[in-house]
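for the record, two folds in this file. i put them one after another cuz i was lazy. first one right below, seq on top, structure tokens after. the second one comes after a little note so u can tell where it starts
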Amino acid sequence: MSSNNKSNLKPGQLLGSLAIMLAALLWSIDGLFIRPQFYILPAELVVFLEHLLGLAILSPFILIFWPKIRALSRKSWLALAWVSIFGGLIGTLFITKAFFSAMDGNVSFATVVILQKLQPIFALLLARLILKERLGKRFYFWAATAIIAGYFIAFGKTGLDWSQIDWRHSGALFAFVAAFAFGSSTVFGKRITNHLDYRAVAALRFGLTSLLALLLLILSGSLSNIGLVSSRQWSLLTLIVMTSGAGAMFIYYFGLRRVPASAATVLELFWPFSAIILDYAFNRNYLNLTQLLALVVLLFAFYQISVSGRLKKMKFSGRVIRGQDKGRVIGFPTANLDKVDIDLPHGIYVVMVNHNGRDYLGLMHFGFKDIFKGEVSLEIFIQNFSEQIYGEKLEVSVLEKIREVKSFASPELLTETIKKDLEVLQRFN
């Protein structure tokens, strides 16, 4: 029987979930205590400076991973551009403007927060449409439960409802646009972290967003306002970079690589939980019974999302092409496929291969075959199969990821590892 039906939580998935929740905690600290300190500055200047400083810290990763970056497909570059434009520039800019608007008294802080609850809805829909993340009913039940619990945590005392939101007000519109920008960025960020190390993704995002923000500053004539930044604000900008900015993004992409985009965006709802804890610790604002119950439900929903947030079987097809026959040399001949741009994290997978109506178990390697050239390969060892199939089409169902792609010092070590990988197939027979 396949282990695909098991619901036990894998260490990598748990680690990814915790990383996303930690990033959400850092964003809470930013929104409550740090970002309001920049109220007198243009929002676009704040966005530019925090991304520029973040780039200064993360830029070495662009050099380290340049071979892989150079090998990115056009589809991956478009995903990265979307993340930089929407998640980096538009999302950060509009949520900053929304909070500044709340400080002006033109819109309530509660309105900004509740509109941010739209973010998971955008991400869930886009993850289904773009990444084809087919998740079960159990996942969507707990996702909806988490969103509702987050609502009660944020507004258990105020009782704000949708009818009180003035959609014509700029602050409400800013929050709505930010929700879409961040939600869609989660989906496209998942797409790019499937094919590129999360450290390089974070560095590229900060680099592209810095350029875009600089262009916006020049066009708006706000670049000269950089002289208004006080020494204390420069110190706070450095703090943002190390925590809620580059630091949180670094942690976030680390987690995003390990969980589905649909689960990631709901795990980000750790924001209301952490914000309430911080509010109590520093402002002594207590939770009422409704909020306490919602908090318990939210934490339980987070766990269930991590458990049930696995993808169902992914299917794709590819044509067999000639490789370098390295697998045949060590006794494990593989079928190399021309399909190397699928939305799947690099790794070693158990797969089911259909050829001429018959199913065969196999192991699939999807990742870089030469880190220095940045070349990606997708090759499959098909168990109990010896036919010549060059040029033929194979239907592949991905069952389970068993490990990351590794480099080996010798063919002997590679052979030993493959033999251990093949033992996993016994669970699927």
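(here's the note) second protein begins now
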Amino acid sequence: MIRIYADSTNDLTRELLEKYNVRIVPLYVRMGDDSRPDGLDFDIESMYAWSDEHKSTPTTAAFSPGDAEDALKDAVDAGDDVLFFGISTEISSSCNSFRIAAANLDWSDHTFVVDSRSLGNGIGILIIKAAEMAKEGNMSAAEIWLEIEKLIPKVRVSFVVDTLKYLYRGGRCSAVSALASSALGIKPKIIMSGGKMTVGAKYRGKPEVVCKKYIADLRKGLLRADKEMVFVYHSVGTSEAVCEIMKKEVEDLKYFENIYETVAGGIISSHCGPGTYAIMYLDTEE
């Protein structure tokens, strides 16, 4: 049997995690002395309230190898192979923590770690593809891992942030630092490239107008994407109008078999802030 594990930053819905039997190992969000595990039940609004009150943004931390060992023991005891999916190693050490855990349990030969070079539902796309391969039952974990490695460069992740302060304070996107001093009114498109975040287009205008510009810029790529799925993704605090525009614009393409609406969890929200939204998909070209 092949088991699938992932860190909490993939932000798949509860329904998708249950459908594909994905075991989550949570990262942590720290607000002063308060450290909370990320996950589906993480209270995003209280985190934003803490940030506003303290004029600071939370810090985040990967799980420890010990946390990963606790999660991995069931698979080891059952003699199952494992595929683990983590946020880009340029951003977090969760992949390395899982590798250490597998080594500590003498299970490295049965553990295949996928450095997604991505975040959010970009990881989720890879998880779903791997789970579908595993369900077919005619591929080993090693073979699935090799196929997923081929897909990683084709995952397209970009998002628009309403405020730069979370990314700026968190230091995860160096390009934001250069932009911040002259960013009045700018809503930048942040792109995942080579496992890192960089600034793409710089939009101005009302949120609804910016959202339509963002989707128009993605249209060519969306119409050559893998038709199986696309993710419409946003953080808590994104306006209902923007969410509806994203969903409608993607639906009007009449192209995708599945349009998944998802919400950013604690880790992604702590770095991107309220009002962040994204479209994530798998390209058919590298």
